[in-house]
Fold these 2 entries.
Entry 1:
Amino acid sequence: MSALAAREVVAGYEPGLPIVKGASLSVAGGEIVALLGPNGAGKSTLAKAMAGLVPVASGAVLLQGSDITAVPAHLRLKRGLGFVPQTENVFANLTVRENLELAASLAGLDRRAAREEMFGFFPDLARLARLEAGRLSGGQRQMLAVARALLAKPAALMLDEPSAGLSPRYVAEVFAMLARVRQAGVAILLVEQNVKAALELADRAVVLVDGTVRLDEPARPLLGDPRLPALFLGAREHA
Ligand SMILES: Nc1ncnc2c1ncn2[C@@H]1O[C@H](COP(=O)(O)OP(=O)(O)OP(=O)(O)O)[C@@H](O)[C@H]1O
Ligand SMILES: [Mg+2]
């Protein structure tokens, strides 16, 4: 049984105007699936639909086998699905510690215990505990955003372009952190523009083009596969 799955999901922002046009994918515990595709393909929309932030017109989102399509977004973390959006994923004017404690409170957890557990998993964050999140580096901010999502020990974690705007050094840092989260058994769905780095990290890759899944295959063999640029470029030519 997969930890997280989308089954024939149709989703969009306006009724009758689907952006995601029947997409299916699944992620097992301890697996990273990269969700790739050209700009505007619907990757973020699919992730947001799975997080409950964009309405699902038909199809289903499954978490450890149960249908969570109707579960309100704010309850999904408690149910075991964490989501790290691309932007505004931490409170810039709160300290690292306050960010973690607030997330713990919202998830109904013991604030101190949850915070200390995350400091144990991310010693860098413990060192930065008193710093305002707005003063963190890009890589540190992503680490804090992931720690916030991991507090509730989710079975699955979705991230929308955690490497966006980061220098190569921080991309490597964020991806190494995700490898550790995978090691802990979490199912990870990783939306990425950074195709090469994502294929090197992920176990499987799903390529979305115009709201439809065009490839779902083991990730590493796709490095250098000519079908990949063709799917990206083809979409651009027809745009
Ligand atoms: N809030 C919104 N309201 C209406 N349409 C939107 C909204 N957000 C995105 N769209 C549209 O949905 C389509 C898919 O966008 P989406 O952001 O899901 O693509 P993406 O694959 O994540 O692209 P990128 O790689 O650029 O992040 C685009 O045509 C976009 O204009
Ligand atoms: Mg996007």
Note: The beta strands are 4-11, 20-27, 32-36, 56-63, 66-67, 81-84, 156-160, 187-191, 204-209, 212-218.
Entry 2:
Amino acid sequence: MKVYPDFLLHDILWYKIGGKARFLIEVKGKQDIKNAYEFLRKQKDLPAGRQVKKVFFLGLGSNLIFTDDYFDGAILRFLPNNNSIKLTKPHLIHADAGTILDDVIQFGFQNNLVGLEWAGGLPGNVGAAVRGNVGAFGGEIKDVIKDIEVFEAQNGKPRFKNLKRYELKFSYRNSLVKKNGLGVLAATFRLKQADPATIQRARQTYLNNIEYRKIRHPLEFPNCGSVFKNIATPEHVEKILNVYPDLEEKIKRDWYGKVSMGYLIKRLDLSGYRIGNAMISPKHCNFIVNLGGARARDVLSIIKVIEEKFLETFDFTPEVEAEVVE
Ligand SMILES: Cc1cc2nc3c(=O)[nH]c(=O)nc-3n(C[C@H](O)[C@H](O)[C@H](O)COP(=O)(O)OP(=O)(O)OC[C@H]3O[C@@H](n4cnc5c(N)ncnc54)[C@H](O)[C@@H]3O)c2cc1C
């Protein structure tokens, strides 16, 4: 475990945006987590105003907008260690929360296992992937999880327990981990053993998915992924159709009943809209890119502009997907 006081976050976050945190604590496994809470318990002896009240778990920060303000709490940053990924049975991979998801995919291929190739190009670590039940190209993490180890602080001490897949209550980008604010320590993936031809096909799917993202997403700039959720609520889809009736066919045929936020933001003429060094990417309008040195307040102001434009045009505000951390 390593503790860094008054740590400037934007250096380590995917978005390269964010102010200072009172403590950044790097953890690489169970003992580190115990030590981290022990450290935080000692801070509790400080006078009332100086105690650490907030604890935030951090992966790569690829889905986060940290504000420019001082984060008066502790950030537990999950990192991999030398032994963070191993085969426990021919088809089971055990990975610590800090393991990069892409390393699990590669490790699977090396051991003739497939089932995670849909996640090619999806940034993040194992802990966050389980918490948010990440998904892409028709795959979801819930389909390959066997069980996980979690922890929860009780009276300032982390209590560990195992949860099986069916206990995790996975749903769209959601899980019990998220609902109950649990920490993920490790996960066991159940993948499929495959012959060389199947492995080759899975590798190709993985590479195609990375390529697809490179072409469509503005990966050349720091970003936080999709800023808004696509519009899925029937009532909201209806409101959009009231304004753009020509979209009816496209919604059915191309978007499986939803409406693409990237498309709508572009049609509302906000492509390339810029505040400070944050900009709505013309390559994909549901991304707000950091052109270099952007501040969280610039990003949040652009989000506000989009929300206001939606309210004015469609009479509702879209839901933000990226997590704002204050
Ligand atoms: C270019 C780009 C494309 C993306 N495409 C997709 C996509 O196709 N599908 C998709 O689902 N997502 C996508 N995302 C979002 C992102 O990849 C996921 O949300 C991912 O799980 C975030 O991982 P992370 O390690 O960066 O987590 P962070 O952003 O650091 O954290 C995300 C959340 O997980 C929590 N967390 C982190 N570690 C733990 C832990 N050990 N225990 C408990 N909670 C923890 C954090 O507190 C936070 O609430 C994309 C993001 C980007 C930037």
Note: The mean pLDDT is 96.
